[in-house]
Write a structure and sequence with these properties.
Blueprint lengths: L5 E6 L10 E5 L5 E6 L4 H21 L3 H11 L17 H17 L4 H11 L3
Parallel strand pairs: 1-3
Antiparallel strand pairs: 2-3
Helix pairs in contact: 1-3
């Protein structure tokens, strides 16, 4: 089931629930909440919002819950890999994250965003 309502919000990084620059969760009623840290460029913020929304819907379709993702994120935080989900083979959402990342990359090209500059801006704010 696709969520009932999607709320997308750009917030100061200090307000993030788990410390990453992007976060999502499904409410008990099925509504999707997406929060991303302000990267100082509306295009960058849009790309992170889009990634998180795509990832959430793909996870929902695969039966991967918010709680599973939160657990994987906490476990991945213990690794030294800067791209902890893509490089963390135990993450249940690895496929969904990578598919959302591919769509994010395509959208960045359509928006004229330099991928390396985008990544550097994200790293200045917080962890992926």
């Amino acid at each position: 089931m696709i969520c009932m309502k999607i709320t997308l919000e750009v917030i100061p990084h200090e307000q993030q629930r788990l410390g990453a620059i992007g976060d999502w969760w499904f409410e008990q009623n099925g509504d999707l909440q997406v929060r991303v840290s302000d990267l100082g460029d509306d295009r960058y913020n849009f790309l992170v919002l889009r990634h998180e929304m795509d990832e959430a819907i793909l996870c929902q379709q695969a039966g991967i819950t918010t709680e599973m993702v939160d657990e994987d994120q906490k476990n991945a935080a213990d690794t030294d890999d800067p791209d902890s989900f893509s490089g963390y083979p135990g993450a249940r959402l690895q496929k969904q994250h990578n598919d959302a990342l591919a769509a994010e990359w395509i959208m960045s090209r359509l928006l004229g965003v330099d991928w390396e500059s985008y990544g550097e801006a994200a790293e200045r704010v917080g962890k992926w």
